[in-house]
Fold:
Amino acid sequence: MSDIMLKVSGLKVAYGGIQAVKGVSLEVRKGELVSLIGANGAGKTTTLKAVTGTQPAADGDIEYLGRSVKGQGSWDLVKQGLVMVPEGRGTFTRMTITENLQMGAFVRNDKAEIDADMEKVFATFPRLKERRNQLAGTMSGGEQQMLAMGRALMARPKVLLLDEPSMGLSPIMVDKIFEVVNDIHQQGVTVLLVEQNASRALQLAARGYVMDSGEITMSGDAKMLLNDPKVRAAYLGE
Structure:
């Protein structure tokens, strides 16, 4: 049995006549934290949307746990443990924090385990526990990002896809979010992190992929990419 959890091969995605993703291939192995970095508009989010079934792929294949899942809906994929925290968080603003977390477990029916997992989420995010009865829409952006991550964890992901979790957050909140991503990974969840903050993403990851104009232009050991002059010039502002 291969330890490759997620494998994307020759993925192409088009919006209208525009090729947004041009033959991308990448893989994530069991227990890894892999970062996909690149400038805004490079095609990172589109790649994740195709992987999770919210954007149709024009060509290529997506394998999850050794089987092709291309064309499957996101509902089916969540049930199989492939879960995404979308860019912009997507919390249910008119529901409480507790109700949002319960929505994360909608594919499950193991009541006692769900309650235990909610306590785990509250241990990871004490701020959510303090405000468990507050409406999600009244929280700050950073708190909503924590809620979106907590909600994803309630689905018991085998592979967690994070799309720009630090975007638009204050520096203190960015530190907290990266700390939590690391904690989630340490708990044994396999993570694919899409992030514009290249330096922070590569510091956390074991391996990285660099995406530019819909293509993977570099890949390899995260420390190697972090020290690469081309990466530093393009993405780390040097």
Q: What stands out?
A: The mean pLDDT is 92.
